[in-house]
Structure prediction request, 722 residues.
Amino acid sequence: MKHKSESEKALQELGKDVVKQIKKEKNPELTFTLRGLSNIIYDPKIRSLKLGSKTASRSFFNLAHAKKFLQTFDVAAVIKNLIKEGKHASLRDVFYQVKRTIPSTKINVVDEQTESDKVIEDLEVITNLSREQLHVNANKEGSIVGNVVIEDSGDTINWAKLGSGGWSIPSNVENIKFKKINAKFIIYMEKAAVWERLHEDRFWEKQNCIIITSQGQTTRGIRRLLQRMYEEHNLPIYVLCDLDPWGAYIYSVIKYGSIALAHLGTRMTIPGVKYLGITCQDVEKYGLQKHLIKLNEQDISRIKQISEYDWFKDNKAWLQQFKMMKSMNSKAEIQALSSRGISFISNVYLPEKIKNKDFID
Amino acid sequence: MKHKSESEKALQELGKDVVKQIKKEKNPELTFTLRGLSNIIYDPKIRSLKLGSKTASRSFFNLAHAKKFLQTFDVAAVIKNLIKEGKHASLRDVFYQVKRTIPSTKINVVDEQTESDKVIEDLEVITNLSREQLHVNANKEGSIVGNVVIEDSGDTINWAKLGSGGWSIPSNVENIKFKKINAKFIIYMEKAAVWERLHEDRFWEKQNCIIITSQGQTTRGIRRLLQRMYEEHNLPIYVLCDLDPWGAYIYSVIKYGSIALAHLGTRMTIPGVKYLGITCQDVEKYGLQKHLIKLNEQDISRIKQISEYDWFKDNKAWLQQFKMMKSMNSKAEIQALSSRGISFISNVYLPEKIKNKDFID
Prediction:
């Protein structure tokens, strides 16, 4: 249980440091890297969003800080208990555990969940540990199948023997052990229906790969699972999305990280992932012209917005896609491939694109 | 493969009947039960929503019907192919498969997915089979754990040996075989985070039960899975939701069905399920008074709306809950129980409520 002791140690040090300051009769103070937008930068060298060098401090005898200071230590205490008991909680659970009225006042430690959520992010920065290592889990979502055997919570699980459903991905994958991986690559897709298509076609078996899906935005659990397989087992990862700005963004979050979680730096990013989704070139190549969907206003403004993001604005291949989407005034869904036959995606489209390394970086 | 031949037969009959009409030089016509709101009734005897006796007909030589008539047979043809090939599709896939331009015209068979969706619902009524039996799957969502061994797609799966993730529930559960069920009851919960709590506490092992979750609305796959375990194995089902009108509705859909799927009648309903979620009485009994959340406008209007539904309006226990919510002007979440300790739900709340049969019907 490496994480456990690491996390416990980090929280203990946090407490000890404050006690030391109090004993020296100082105003107890915490200093940590600022998480605001003004301190979020895209670092092209590591191909990841990260925090800059600005710091903030929070002290107890400061009217503007006192409550946040108390919140920080109350949340840290709740987390310390979770770790001690070997239990995990959701953000909502932590909120309810921290929510109490300060004795002989009418003031609550927290009134809204956003307050405890922010403190948990602060603690990620302060301790240099992720929420998951601090036993605070994100959403559970997604399914996975492939020639992989893992160990988790005392069970040995073969991802190749789970029927039509697959393994349900937990919110926290830190303690999973990979016992055997027999796969050449991973395909992550944004749509569970496409995953069911590939699974029914035994695509993962025929192509010797792993297929994984969530539904819409990629959860932290899935991002960490992908990252662990990429880093620990050198597995290439291909992302299969719709041709629209939302698909491009889903891809970019897996690759470069997200603004909301920039403080995690490279802890969640996978610079080597490739985009395997529908491209503007695919539309002609695979005869999808009659199955385009007109861009709506949100699509158009989102294309404008993401083309200006640091990690897209110098990327010629993506800028070309955005330009073509605008000039076609259209987007296209993965499932448009079903117009060519229900298993066209498994039998033709994906094998061809993978064989030709027809990816966008 | 009983379903398969049943479904194939139903579609064949549909085609044969039209051919017969054409040979008799009649205007080919389809007659089926009307699905509109005007024909949806709540039947207290079977405790389920169902369709009334009004029928509609659709004929080919009728300007208002011709397109729908064609759509019906085009969709039926796509489905017949799916069944023949042993494959399943999503609604979106069927839409793309049906979307084609009628030769030497500029008219598409369908332009929007809502058109093919409606035809699929028509076919459910016409053939008296469910979408799943017609190989058209709904959303995939949810996780399950318990002392159960199943067979699915050639794999034998033990739901008790799947680590922290559990089995990922497929969209279509028609072909699952239950090989061994060693459980006394089932708890279905609306929140995946609560499921992870119960699973980490090994609640299902200690209480010898099955725990199952989706996230928010219950998918058709989950409803059918619950129903099959209830009907084929006599397992009591308890539903664990937040105390708010949305939780009450999630419960009622599992029990009585939904307006949108009324044409399925008792095919998806489980009249025997009990509500085990937070009640107004629990608030005092378990000291949650400080953890109530104020009702917002949507909550208030939704309470008014659902208290008038046929299946709630004569139910004293539920009307009392709605009244108390309004007089407290508050709702309460399952996770409010975390304020009493992270495992209070597993160690105290649920065992006590189940032991005392403290349910709402």
